[in-house]
Design goal:
Radius of gyration: 16 Å
CATH architecture: 3-Layer(aba) Sandwich
Number of domains: 1
Structural class: alpha/beta
Number of strands: 4
Number of helices: 6
Helix content: 25-40%
Length: 165
């Protein structure tokens, strides 16, 4: 079984690297949708359409599991995909819940009182669409986090990407 990793660009290569380090014998297929990046300036339906098209390509390439390494795609498309689109025998997962679990040293759904953890501050970079997605704010509120403050973006645009071959 191959595992697909999907991102709207190249940032998901960090996820590819982490998965490969932990599961070196599992075949990995990476798809970065550089043709349509950035996803964060698009509306939710457009993000859903682009994400399902990319994930479908990974399924066609032999992947039974696809990890959405794109936070914007996870926020705007993942739940809808899981509920109404993912074919039988296939799975699509995001990276946001595991991130919260790692930062808080708790499993998702653990509603015990907050406790002291090693991580004190986290910088999360998010696109406008990621912040607008209801799933994002629900995940923060329902997860095992004590508090979060939101700041305005430092820059108004993305760095240009270069094709990697």
């Amino acid at each position: 079984m191959a595992v697909g990793i999907f991102d709207s660009g190249l940032g998901g290569l960090t996820v590819w690297d982490a998965v490969h380090a932990r599961l070196p014998d599992v075949p990995l297929v990476y798809l970065g949708d550089n043709a349509h990046t950035p996803y964060g300036v698009r509306d939710a339906d457009d993000i859903y359409d682009l994400t399902t098209a990319g994930v479908a390509r990974l399924f066609e390439a032999g992947c039974d599991l696809v990890i959405l390494a794109c936070n914007t795609a996870s926020a705007a498309a993942l739940r809808r995909m899981q509920e109404a689109w993912v074919p039988q025998g296939k799975r699509v997962l995001g990276v946001f819940v595991p991130l919260i679990e790692a930062l808080t040293e708790r499993q998702w759904g653990d509603n015990s009182p907050p406790r002291e953890v090693a991580v004190k501050n986290v910088a999360l970079f998010a696109t406008p669409a990621r912040w607008r997605a209801a799933r994002f704010s629900v995940n923060w509120r329902s997860g095992p986090l004590v508090s979060m403050s939101r700041r305005r973006p430092v820059a108004g645009s993305w760095m240009p990407l270069r094709r990697v071959t």
